[in-house]
Design brief:
Number of helices: 19
Radius of gyration: 22 Å
Helix content: 55-70%
Distance between the termini: 40 Å
Number of strands: 2
Structural class: mainly alpha
Strand order of the largest sheet: 1-2
């Protein structure tokens, strides 16, 4: 049988490639592939909705660029910052443009991409176990990756496949569900479990605030507090065996994200709460740099002095230009103005009109869940600006697909 490769199938492959490439932790390759994908799928026209989103991220980059002309930062850091700050622009354009080119149910494509992602993850885990005899959870995560937000989106979408009008044979659907589900669990990532909970609650409509939903959310909050209290009472150790190390990471969640005092001489305190340490040093140094810097930032190429060399990945660094916290990264580059613009970018998730079209309402619910998670994700792990992040592509696709569905329905009405 002769296989015919259509333009749609090529764009589908490009989409999967754009999703998977960041997984290999080569940021230069990611930017190169994303730039090429944005170029080959460029459109002749764009909607107001997508222009607004691109404007927010472009404005943050533009402010940082203008400020950098009045500073004397190293060219390497300037170039590096440009690639980080332009990444959300590329991602949202890729999602929007590829969705227009493919012009079909994007949720099936997201699920298939998630399945490919999961197979790659499980391959690396298996490789670690068979060839390197890895059994420790922390070492296993080192080999397979620390989290995968995209797979969680794919998993939740396939769980609600009827709502998203996904047509996949039952056997294949079950296979996708099992493989993606197992892959997500083996990341043992706290943020992914939280993400799953937020998205499921959103798709069930529990964030539409009324008496019933508030009661359900209150019960969930109470159970969460009780569960956390139990973990604190168990007092899991820092380097404990098996799941104990994972429970320890859960125990330190509040301090890790929000601690305001850290003893730099205590390596455990510094290591466990390093993200908060970055935030503390950023606020201190920005506050001491004058009002103009606080408002407009230090521009592209700016760095934060950690006051000593700290092991970050495979390097020891004292000066860092990109932080774990997305808000703080934008604050450093574009100041308070940049942070306000970033907050405005979240409006797209929550300001969506209800519709008589079922799948539009489903997209709106997914957007609410995605927005709530992105607010958190930008705080704990750079959100849009993380080099391995690909969620912004989903946002571009959702904006585009909603427009396509509404336009098709309107055309049917006009024809009738």
């Amino acid at each position: 049988m002769k296989t015919v490769i259509t333009k749609k199938s090529i764009y589908q492959i490009v989409f999967i490639l754009c999703v998977v490439i960041p997984y290999f932790d080569n940021f230069e390759l990611t930017i190169a592939v994303w730039s090429l994908a944005a170029l080959i799928s460029i459109q002749s026209s764009y909607s107001i909705g997508i222009i607004k989103q691109v404007f927010y991220f472009s404005a943050i980059l533009l402010i940082a660029l203008i400020v950098s002309f009045f500073e004397n930062h190293k060219f390497y850091f300037i170039l590096r910052d440009i690639t980080y700050l332009i990444k959300p622009v590329l991602g949202i354009l890729i999602g929007y443009q590829l969705c227009k080119k493919i012009n079909q149910n994007i949720f099936e494509l997201i699920v298939r991409a998630g399945f490919v992602f999961s197979l790659i993850h499980l391959f690396f885990l298996l490789r670690g176990v068979l060839f390197y005899k890895v059994i420790n959870i922390n070492d296993l995560r080192f080999f397979g990756g620390f989290f995968s937000d995209f797979e969680v989106f794919a998993f939740v979408i396939i769980l609600f496949y009827k709502k998203f009008e996904i047509v996949i044979p039952p056997k294949k659907r079950k296979l996708y569900t099992v493989i993606i589900g197992v892959s997500i669990f083996l990341y043992l990532a706290r943020t992914n479990f939280i993400q799953f909970g937020i998205l499921v609650l959103a798709l069930k409509g529990f964030f539409n605030l009324n008496k019933r939903n508030l009661t359900v959310l209150a019960v969930i909050a109470t159970l969460t507090i009780l569960g956390y209290s139990t973990i604190v009472m168990i007092n899991p150790k820092r380097n404990g065996p098996g799941l104990e190390a994972f429970l320890y990471k859960i125990k330190i969640i509040p301090e890790e994200a929000l601690k305001t005092r850290i003893n730099r001489e205590d390596w455990k305190d510094l290591n466990d709460n390093y993200r908060s340490y970055e935030n503390i040093m950023t606020v201190k140094q920005m506050s001491h740099s004058g009002k103009e810097t606080f408002i407009f930032g230090k521009g592209l190429g700016s760095t934060i002095d950690l006051k000593e060399e700290i092991q970050l990945g495979d390097k020891k660094l004292r000066f860092i230009s990109i932080l774990h916290n997305g808000y703080m990264t934008v604050f450093l580059k574009s100041g308070l103005i940049g942070v306000i613009i970033l907050l405005f970018s979240f409006v797209v998730y929550f300001k969506n009109k209800s519709s008589t079209i079922p799948i539009i309402n489903q997209i709106n619910l997914l957007m609410v869940g995605m927005g709530l998670f992105m607010i958190m994700s930008n705080w704990v792990f750079m959100g849009y600006y993380f080099k391995a992040d690909n969620k912004i592509i989903i946002l571009g696709m959702l904006i585009c697909y909603r427009e396509i569905v509404i336009r098709k329905r309107q055309n049917i009405i006009n024809n009738d």
